[in-house]
Fold:
Amino acid sequence: GAATWKAWRESWILKLIFVLLLISFIIAVTYPPNNYDSLTYHMARVAHWIQNKSISHYQTHIIRQLIFPPFAEWSILHVQLLTGSDRLANAIQLFFFGGCILVVSLLISELGGNRKQQLLGALLTCTIPMAIIQSNTTQNDIVVAFFVLAFVYRMLRLLKNFSYANIFLAGITLGLALLTKGTAYIFTVLFFAWVIVIFIRDYRLSLNQLLRKSVLVLSIPLLAILINYGHYYRNSFLTGTALGGVIEYISPQGLG
Structure:
């Protein structure tokens, strides 16, 4: 009957998503990191951290190894130390790719979509060509995409339910997005503008209530800054700016 057909169709979509992720996993663990960015930037900084037994800045002429946000590489660092190999380095993005598929499904539900629409959204996310290609590399675009999507989801939840939990989780996801890749600043600021809706909607609140909401909302970027403080400090010490700036040349002595 109709119920049986619906169950089979849903099962087929989930199985297809699983097969696509499984193929990416096989590729990820079979072939070591070998693209240009991996060898000159992502994996190189991991090797330096392991060698130095520290995530502090070190002497190098490839400045992006130092100033770019490090969360994705920190994840690779932990897995590599735990396994004693870079065999699973490519699988980090695959893990977050699965998270992206799940969060897209949650976003569709939050926006009023039904189960069928959630499954189709998950399938479409799983079949994005660039996402498939990057899901078995040590790039960090999928990692930052996951945290941006999670931040958007939390902001949606916050607009519906102004709670301490949503405030806290919004700050955490924003902070980790910024700690992963600089493009997060562009995308998250657009969605953070949704906070204005809260004040427009609640303009009739008393002054005390409005101030309380303002303080709580401002705690979101403050929490994100706190998460990124260590990296900001190291960049400021090295380049004079928290985000690192653009450096044409720095002598080895200047990196000590």
Residues 207-239 form the longest helix (33 residues). Confidence is low (pLDDT under 50) at residues 247-256.
